[in-house]
Amino acid sequence: GLTASARRDRSRDVLAGIFARMTSALASDERAVQFPIPAGVHAEKVVSVRHYTDRLFSFRITRPQSFRFRSGEFVMIGLPNAEKPVFRAYSVASPAWDEELEFFSIKVPDGPLTQHLQKIQPGDTVLMRQKSTGTLVLDALTPAKRLFMISTGTGIAPFASLLRDPDTYEKFEQVYLTHTCRDRAELAYGQELVAALKDDPLIGELTEGRVTLYNSTTREESPCMGRITALIGSGKFYSDLGIEPFNPETDRVMICGSMEMLRDVKELVEGLGFVEGSLSAPASFVVERAFVG
């Protein structure tokens, strides 16, 4: 048989193995509590995560009971992985009435936040500052017939919130969402969002026949190719949808996406007589860049 010392060694090895497995199981919990949660910051739990492509993912977190926001606003999000966590601006993609908060994010390989954020799993902790803000809100626009939401990439997020808000349908008769990405797979988030509207228990009936999605890609071959400014500028956007061109008398425009697209669409609508609005002075268009990093 084994000597007493060999038995001791073996049981020590077995215990060490059990301990190693326990500590690795605890490591995921440990990660969350390693650093103190900064004062005045909500620590929320990840409820679900969905990866769309190697560049895009969405996630849902619990919502603090005290948290109020207007559909279309953004919050500052971080992770409890440092003494002074990095915070980045994220538009809330869920509507103001939802009991969870949804976000749609790009994955930046060396982004100070997204390189870590893209690895989150249900149960992990996400930090959120208490205040929401932003310009892409209905209150910054005067009422009109048609609302155009122009987006590229993750710039669709605030519109995902607004499309699910009953106020949008109180204020406008028709809503047009444009979403332009490099590749077709990146359009899935918006396509699923719009397809699900009709079955939404709160707003399903309101959206019937009133929401139109217009997709284009800039790199991968697809039924509609090109940058949205080129498609609007050439008139193809209007003829594809069989609609009247932009008119400040009847239309309102919300713009969110890359800096370049923002500049071009802002220039285009200002050339047509649209005026930039704000909460203090509502007008005919609003604009906000989609943040990354």
Q: Top keywords for this entry?
A:
25% strand; 293 residues; 5-stranded parallel beta sheet; alpha/beta
Can you put this structure into words, describing what you see?
The chain is of the alpha/beta class. 29% of the residues lie in helices and 25% in strands. It has helices at 4-33, 114-117, 157-162, 166-171, 188-197, 204-207, 228-234, 236-241, 259-271; strands spanning 41-51, 56-62, 74-78, 88-91, 100-106, 125-129, 146-152, 174-181, 211-217, 251-257, 285-289. The strands form two sheets. Strands 4-3-6-1-2-5 form a six-stranded antiparallel β-sheet, with no helix packed on it. Strands 9-8-7-10-11 form a five-stranded parallel β-sheet, with helices on both faces. The N and C termini lie far apart (62 Å). The mean pLDDT is 93.
Number of strands: 11
Alpha-carbon distance between the termini? 62 Å
Provide the residue-averaged pLDDT.
93
What percent strand? 15-25%
Radius of gyration: 23 Å
**SSE sequence, one letter per element:** HEEEEEHEEHHEHHEHHEHE
Computed structural class: alpha/beta
Helix content: 25-40%
3D shape? elongated
Order of strands in the sheet with the most strands? 4-3-6-1-2-5
Residue ranges: pLDDT <50 for 5 or more in a row?
none
Biggest beta sheet attributes: 6 strands, antiparallel
Question: How many DSSP helices?
Answer: 9
